[in-house]
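# nightly structure sweep
# worker-07 picked up a monomer target from the shared queue
# config: single-sequence mode, recycle default, output format = structure tokens
# input follows
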Amino acid sequence: MIKPFTWLLALAGTVSIVFAACSKEDDPQTPADNSQIAGTWHFQKEIDSLFDKSNQLVSVDTTYAADLDLDNPSITFQQNGTVTSALSDTLTGTYTYKPASKTLEIVSSDGISQQLNVITLDGAQLVFESTDTDYGDGKYSKEYFYLTK
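# output follows
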């Protein structure tokens, strides 16, 4: 006859093996719900504000769709997570939109990642902000992109 302690030990070992055999990788992944951002968004304008290292505004430039040498400047977000852009250059890649943090990450097909802060996203308008700190002298710019469906 098996002692109760030995029986509990055997049961605990069996349960441990069963749980170890299950992993999160076996669980189906829930696809991202990109319905809020999916579609073609047409470029309206960009506001580029340059700041010095003491956070003082140095200059503001505004570019409108009519200023671009393009027929239809736009960004298309597919439901499957792919993105194509025809703004200044043609860009293809993938995107991840996180509604809770209002962030949009776009990764180009050559692996360059850009984090964008979403200011407005509704059925008619998308506004996002990008910060560029590549000036090297403490200056930085904040660019605001305005798009409509």
